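Researcher: Next sequence.
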Amino acid sequence: MPLWTYEELDKIGNAEELAIAPRQGNGALRKPLPVWAVRVNDNLYVRSYRGRTGAWFRAAQAIHEGRIWTGGVEKDVVFVEETDPVINDQIDVVYHSTYGRSPYVTPMVTLETRATTLRMMPHIAETDAREG
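Model: Next structure:
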């Protein structure tokens, strides 16, 4: 069983974008902002359009926790850096197939942006509560 429910995977994977709000050092959420998310198999990924200098990305790297909203799903998540080149190649393909009509897709598949790939996983407390 994946960490995400199949319904969550479908809703998030089919959404045009999601709102993402990493946690700050004091535990408060940053202001949500829209990002593209993609689904590869049973995992969900985001990248920072602004590369490693993007404010939300820096916050996500510092605390590794946040919240997302989209398609009727609101979820506390953990961010895990994804460095596997095979997975990143698959993510590139999904970015192209999902957002290929946009002029912003090309920057989303550069080496600099690929280096910001984060896998989003449900926060473990939510997963435990759902299974308990």
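Model: The chain has six helices and seven strands. Residues 5 and 42 are 9 Å apart (CA to CA).
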